[in-house]
Specification:
Largest sheet: 6 strands, mixed
Helix content: 40-55%
Order of helices and strands: HEEHEEEHEHHHHH
Length: 301
């Protein structure tokens, strides 16, 4: 595997030798002093260029970076269209280094500098960037919620609970799991991050996809959270849902008390709905079991 020094040397030498490339910046975790370095960190690089089309029209120039074993070009995709500006090459090499390279036209420089503070300028051939830029992850710190944001989080969590319940009662497990994982769980993690924010003075980030959350909550809470990811049967999904309710209730009450927010009525009302539907579900399962048992005994005769 090429070292960081070797990778940066290649990235910079390509830029220096190509007059179309005027500015090079580094973004992401490699600029963040709060993130420990490891072999899986991408090299998030932006080239500010003249004549974008001359790069995009022929990919041969990217072979200078190394032997690519996997590449994605979001701007050329139909099923997964790009969400960012510019043109990108997400490249994995045969030594397992990875470069996420974005090309941007020079006219986008000002908006780029205003969009993200976690950047480091590596090359500026024309000294276009006048202000000193010091990488900081402050834009990614947990933000203190407003009363409205807090209520919206609670509303979404408890409202989507009804969809999970509906999926379970209908025996549509994929529907139930999808709503629990994609929506309900996201609001639970958001609320837990606000709890962490309160405890740390809103001075840090828990990372993309809440990946550093375990560093700031108790082992017991972390274990309970992880237990909700086991959903390989209807019984397990019900169990996960009830644990999510417990975790959300505890965290949201703590947040409301400390920030002096009104704790909403969604909990009480939707919890009753959930319990009622669960009881009906169990009765129907028991009836189905008895019917199957009776049918089996009849066939034995």
């Amino acid at each position: 595997m090429r070292t960081e020094q070797e990778m940066m040397s290649i990235i910079l030498s390509i830029a220096k030798s190509d007059d179309r490339i005027r500015i090079v910046t580094l973004e992401g975790s490699r600029t963040n002093i709060n993130i420990p370095k490891d072999e899986f960190q991408d090299y998030d690089i932006t080239y500010f260029v003249e004549d974008m089309e001359s790069f995009i029209s022929n990919d041969d120039w990217i072979n200078q970076f190394g032997n690519i074993i996997m590449m994605q070009k979001p701007e050329d995709m139909e099923l997964f269209p790009a969400e960012e500006k510019g043109y990108s090459y997400l490249m994995l090499f045969d030594d397992y280094n990875k470069i996420d390279l974005t090309l941007l036209p020079l006219e986008d420089l000002d908006s780029y500098l205003n969009d993200d503070k976690l950047i480091k300028v590596l090359i500026d051939k024309d000294v276009r960037i006048k202000q000193a830029i010091i990488p900081t992850d402050i834009d990614y710190h947990i933000k203190k919620p407003t009363p409205g944001e807090y209520d919206d989080c609670c509303n979404e969590f408890w409202n989507v609970t009804t969809y999970v319940v509906k999926g379970l009662c209908r025996k549509e497990i994929l529907f139930a799991i999808d709503h629990l994982n994609q929506i309900l769980r996201h609001e639970l993690l958001r609320m837990l991050s606000w709890k962490v924010g309160i405890e740390t003075g809103f001075t840090l980030s828990v990372g993309k996809n809440y990946k550093f959350l375990d560093k700031y909550i108790s082992k017991k809470l972390w274990s309970r959270l992880l237990s909700t990811y086991c959903m390989n049967s209807y019984e397990k999904v019900w169990e996960s849902l009830f644990i999510c309710h417990e975790l959300f209730r505890e965290a949201s009450k703590e947040v409301s008390e400390i920030l002096c927010f009104v704790y909403p009525e969604y909990d009480k009302k939707v919890t009753k709905y959930t319990e009622d539907m669960y009881n009906k579900y169990m009765i129907s399962c028991s009836a189905a079991y008895e019917a199957d048992k009776s049918s089996a005994n009849h066939n034995l005769r």
